[in-house]
Amino acid sequence: MRLIRLLSIGLYTSLATAGLEKRAAIDDCLSGAGVPTDARGSTAWNQDVAPFNQRVPYTPIAIVVPSSVAHVQAAVSCAAKAGVKVNPKSGGHSYASFGLGGEDGHLVVELDRLNTVTVDSATNIATIQAGARLGHVATSLYNQGKRAISHGTCPGVGLAGHSLHGGFGFSSHTHGLALDWMAGATVVLANSTVVNCSLTQNSDLFWALRGAGSSFGIVTSFQFNTFEAPSVVTVFSANLPWNNAQQAATGWTALQDWVTNTMPAEMNMRVFGMSFSTQLQGMYYGPSTALQQAIAPLMTLLGTSLGQTQQTDYMGGFAAYDNGDTVDVSHPYSLQELFFSKSLVTTALPAAAMQSATNYWFGQAKQVSRSWYIIIDMYGGKNAAIPKVPTNLTSYAHRDKLFLYEFYDRQYYGSYPSNGFDFLNGWVKAFTNNLTPAQWGMYINYADPTMNQTEAQINYYRDSLPKLRQVKAQVDPNQLFYYPQSIQPNK
Ligand SMILES: Cc1cc2nc3c(=O)[nH]c(=O)nc-3n(C[C@H](O)[C@H](O)[C@H](O)COP(=O)(O)OP(=O)(O)OC[C@H]3O[C@@H](n4cnc5c(N)ncnc54)[C@H](O)[C@@H]3O)c2cc1C
Ligand SMILES: *[C@@H]1O[C@H](CO)[C@@H](O)[C@H](O)[C@H]1NC(C)=O
Ligand SMILES: *[C@@H]1O[C@H](CO)[C@@H](O)[C@H](O)[C@H]1NC(C)=O
Ligand SMILES: *[C@@H]1O[C@H](CO)[C@@H](O)[C@H](O)[C@H]1NC(C)=O
Ligand SMILES: *[C@@H]1O[C@H](CO)[C@@H](O)[C@H](O)[C@H]1NC(C)=O
Fold first, then answer.
1. How far away, in angstroms, is 375 Cα from ligand 4 center?
2. In whole numbers, what is the pLDDT of the chain averaged over residues?
3. Over residues 27-55, mean pLDDT
4. Closest CA to 319 of 351, 283, 373, 348
């Protein structure tokens, strides 16, 4: 007994000593290489370590704040030498705090100070530093010749994390995912060399980055193709008269058919369901009169009518869905929420899945009094941009799907309740229990850290996984860029 205690104290002490030695080794290496870091406990440290999702805070071994590509290279080299995992953080909006490593003890490369956006007026190609946030990107592109790329709604989300794993928003039915606009990237690899990649240069790496980019290196800057921002967009919503499972299943089935066959390319929309209301919300790339004409048949099918519409310009459209936040945001960024979230992508739902999902929605979910929501994005269909891109062009695995879902359960005070996980897990199972694996998948931009690494890789990457694991074996065989759901290399 005493001996065991002594042994375990000894073991504990030696582990702690090893931890301190590692920390000292990293500190020495970084300062020797002249890499800027946050002093532990400083204001900058506290800002950089604050996760968007307060449910999942982690403590890095050190935080590097590079101002050059050479600093990123040196940081990667120091991490490799010290045997420490390293992860880039751009907007810090990972639902699982994977920018902080998703666990304690990683070296974090905080990129959010690097955020310049420059449009080449001859080619309309934008060069964007990796730490830029979506609102800053949209504003800067618009101010340089009214250009735009496709992306999501929240101004504080980092372009890097977003576009390296997908990037869906109120432009995506018309213009595809954020990653569909990526033309090239400059990347620091695990051996600390820097390479450019594109369709013609290091093309396997470029393929892997566009879907699973967090596992292959640290992108320091991007090239993006751009499109001309529309001069007029119309923001709209309509209440859905779904008061019970039967009404929801009937309405959703009609909507599904319309999205599959009829929804015009210019229309972008989602169902937004909360405990007390269910709405259709959207953005039409065109004037209000054209929207009203295009959507009238759907309103009849759904037994509702269009609410107020707001005709505005492109930036007005962005502001309409930004939750009232400042659009052009950069460091320091301080918004946080406490939540658990899950994702899903599915094909059109067969009747059994539709029934089961709506039964859960109006039977169980409506009983939960927390501030939850479900978003169902009208993502695919005949006129959608996402399925028009060949599946093998990028590692993004879900182009054949019709809907993208986000399940989000917030807690405003205290800690997240342990029975919250069952609530959303049960809802997702209500779909997947009635689908084949080919009919569904998951989206790592709404990362769910309760899945183990094996299950996560399969659900996020489906048919792309074997090749992703090959590329991982080539560029990062020792998993320097590890986090709990990163790609595992082929043996
Ligand atoms: C409020 C909110 C709104 C959102 N809205 C949308 C939306 O409308 N549509 C949508 O599709 N998604 C949306 N998301 C999800 C968002 O796209 C993802 O969370 C995204 O990964 C965040 O990127 P980030 O750079 O902010 O996060 P981070 O936490 O910094 O990074 C996320 C992951 O990417 C890696 N990474 C970051 N930078 C780099 C880099 N330079 N090189 C390589 N890997 C890198 C990190 O290591 C980490 O694994 C939203 C999230 C939030 C919190
Ligand atoms: C990457 O491309 C940029 C121009 O886009 C160039 O300045 C740089 O030298 C290239 N780097 C490498 C390693 O090829
Ligand atoms: C993708 O598939 C098409 C058709 O099978 C093939 O011609 C093309 O070479 C493939 N591209 C890549 C990048 O693998
Ligand atoms: C991972 O999770 C899946 C699904 O819950 C389970 O079947 C599998 O055994 C788990 N694998 C490991 C290695 O824990
Ligand atoms: C670094 O890794 C890349 C990708 O594996 C490889 O092509 C390159 O030769 C390596 N460079 C050095 C200097 O080892």
1. 27
2. 96
3. 98
4. 283
Per-residue pLDDT at 1 exceeds 60: no
The answer to whether the pTM exceeds 0.90 is yes
Ligand 5 pocket member 189 (CB < 6 A): yes
**pLDDT at residue 129 above 70?**
yes
Q: What distance in angstroms lies between residue 196's CA and the mean position of ligand 2's atoms? A: 6
Ligand 3, atom 7, residue with closest C-alpha: 392
Of ligand 3's listed atoms, the one at least distance from the Cα of 207 is 13
In the block, residue with structure tokens 């695919």: 380
Domains in the chain, CATH or no CATH each: 117-228 (3.30.465.10), 232-312+337-450 (3.40.462.20)
* Of 76, 189, 196, 478, best ligand 5 pocket probe by most atoms within 8 Å of the beta carbon: 189
Q: Is the CB of 186 under 6 A from ligand 2?
A: yes
Instruction: Provide DSSP, 446-462.
Output: G--TTS-HHHHHHHHHG
The residue whose CA is least distant from atom 3 of ligand 3 is: 392
Tokens of 260: 């599959």
Q: Is the pLDDT assigned to residue 3 strictly greater than 50? A: no
Full DSSP string of 27-85: HHHHHHTT--BPPTTSHHHHHHH--SBTTS----SEEE--SSHHHHHHHHHHHHHHT--
Report the residue among 392, 393, 394, 464 best suited for mutation to probe ligand 3: largest number of ligand atoms under 8 A from its CB. 392
318 CA to middle of ligand 5, Å?
A: 41
What is residue 19's predicted lDDT score, i.e. its pLDDT? 85
- Each residue's pLDDT tens digit, 148-198: 999 999 999 999 999 999 999 999 999 999 999 999 999 999 999 999 999
Is the pLDDT reported for residue 210 higher than 60?
yes
SS3 339: strand
What's the pLDDT score for residue 8?
53
For the stretch 367-404, pLDDT in tens is 999 999 999 999 999 999 999 999 999 999 999 999 99
In this prediction, residue 16 carries a pLDDT of 77
Ligand 3: list residues with CB < 6 Å: 390, 392
**pLDDT of 318 above 80:** yes
Which residue type sits at 266? E
Give me the amino acid identity at 336.
Q
| Measured CA distances, 187 to 71, 223, 352, 488 (Å) | 13, 12, 46, 19
CB 37 within 8 A of CB 30: yes
Alpha-carbon gap, residue 468 to 462, rounded angstroms = 10
| Confidence (pLDDT) at 371 | 94
How far, in Å, from the CA of 89 to the mean position of ligand 1? 9
Dihedral sign, Cα of residue 224, residue 225, residue 231, residue 235: negative
386 CA to centre of ligand 3 in angstroms: 17
Ligand nearest to the CA of 432: 4
